[in-house]
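Data availability (excerpt). The following record was deposited with the supplementary files.
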Amino acid sequence: MWSWMVAVALATTTGVVVHRTLAAAEAGADRYGSPRSVVMPNRELAAGQVVGDEDVTVTVVPASSAPAQALRRAPIGRALTAPAHEGQALVEAQVAAPGVSGLAASLGDRQRAVAVPRGDHPLPLDAGDVVDVLAPDATTATMVEVATGARVLEVSETTVAVAVDDDSVSDVATALVGGAAVLTLSSG
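Predicted structure:
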């Protein structure tokens, strides 16, 4: 008889504990939202980089911790318009439209990319460096700045692609046609 009463008490206690645990889980789900898939970089990704399979992972997080514009599917083959940080959800504004090159995606508003020949004695430049573009002034026989604060986008053996403001692109192009544009490294 006692064993029957102990079994009933144990079953009742278990039922109450399970009910309370499930109620707490449901309250947590209501508070944090339902699960949502988001795309997260596996490492730091630079503006202009084209996203590959190995660069991102689709992860499930509570809806309350996902930005409203978070991508749900990996943007494989699309270029980034802004840096993406490991562990942060990628949002639509960080990804260029399909077909936009990495170089074009890395340009800011009102910027143009210009290829400047490296010359015989090139500076050791890297993408992200800031340079000024100089050209000869025929009237004073001196070098003048035709663009300042140009960001280096890409460096090849023969050219340096730099982002210049729309206001400077004509002066830089004129200097390039004259064949005497010079890049100087700036502190930013």
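Summary of structural features: The helical segments are 2-32, 102-105, 166-177.
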